[in-house]
Amino acid sequence: xxxxxxxxxxxxxxxxxAGDLLDNSFSEIINSKDFISNTNLDNNINRLxxxxxxxxxxxxxxxxxxxxTLFQQSRDYIGDYVDSKDEEIEALIDQIVDLEQxxxxxxxxxxxxxxxxxGSILVDRxxxxxxxxxxxxxxxxxxxNISSELFLDLKAALGxxxxxxxxxxxxxxxxxxxxxxxxxxxxxxxDLGGAETNVEEEIATFADSFNYNALxxxxxxxxxxxxxxxxxxxxxxxxxxxxxxxxIRNQIEEAKIANVSNYDKYREYLVNRIKIxxxxxxxxxxxxxxYNNDIEYGFTQEERIKxxxxxxxxxxxxxxxxxxxxxxKRLWIFVKNKSANSANAKSLMLEAQAxxxxxxxxxxxxxxxxxYGGWExxxxxxxxxxxxxxxxxxxxxxxxx
Length: 401
What we know:
With 401 residues, this protein is mainly α. Helices cover 52% and strands 4% of the residues.
C-alpha cells in the first residue's frame, strides 16, 4: 500500500502582529470606543453597578481588590468627606468632657464657714437689718426685707412654716461679723427657681418686660381726648329765662362735664404709664446692680462673663425707660393738678394739645436723661404722683420693719 504524505503548515505571528489582530480589552464591561465617545456612558454606569450589586457579597472586605479599596478611592476622590458619625462622636466626646467636669465639681464639697453653715440666713443688727444667705462660705445679700416675697419663699424653702417668726429662721449678728465673711453674688428670685437661664433667655425677658415706645402710643396724644366747645349766641343771658335759654344752659353744662371727664381720663392714663415705666426703670437698674455684683463676686469665670454680657444688654433698656420718662415729664406738666375745674380743664387740655407735637418730637437731651437713674432720682419731676412709695414696691431696700 502506497504511503500518502500529508504536508502540515503552521502560521506564526510575532508579538507586534498579534497585537494588531487581537482585541485584548474587556468589552463585556466597558466598550473603550463608546467610553471615549461618551455616547453610552449612562448604560455603562448602569452595567457597572449591576455587576457591582451582583458581586457585592463576593467582593472581599479588605485587600487590593476589595470594598475597603473602593471606599478609600471614592472618599479620596470626593475630597473633604465628613462622616456624620464622626460629628456625633465629637459631640458625645464634648458631652463626656462636660459631664466629667460637672462630676469633678460635685466631688469637691462646698466650702463651709466654721460657724455659719451654708443655707443659713444672717441678719445685720445695725446696718438697716440687711439680710444675707450663706452659700459656699460667702454671704449673699438678699434683696428686700422680712416682708418681701423673696425672703418668705426662702424661709419656706428652708423648711420653716408660715407662722414661724423671722427670728426663728435667721441669725442676728453684728456688722463686724458680716464684714469678716467674704461677699458673694447677690441672692435673687432666680436662685430659688433652680433652673439656670442662659444669656439669650434672660435677654429675652428684657424685651418682654419693656417693649413700649412712647412715640407710637396714640393714647398719649391729648388730641384723642377732644375738648367740647359750644357757640353761645349774643342774646344769651345766663340769668334770663327767655325761650331757648334753658337749652343753651344745658349745652354749657354738658360741655363742662365732658371736658373735665376727658381731662381726668387723659391724666389717669398718663399716671398709670408713668408708674409702669418708673417701675420698669427700677427693675433694670436693680438688674444692672446685680450684674455688677456678679462680675465682681461670681463663683466661676463663666458666671462673671455671663454677668458682663447681661450688663451690656440691659444698658439700652435703662436708657429707653429713662427717655420715656423724659417724654412723660414734658406731658405731665399740663395735667399735674387733679382737681381741675371745667375752665382749667379746658384751657390745660388745649395747651397740652397745642404743645404735644413739639414735646413728643423734640429729641431727648443728655441733661434730661440724667435726671433719672438708680430709680430714685427724678421723683420730683412728677408732682402729685407718689413715686417714692413705689421705691419699696417689691421690697428692695428699707428697714427690716
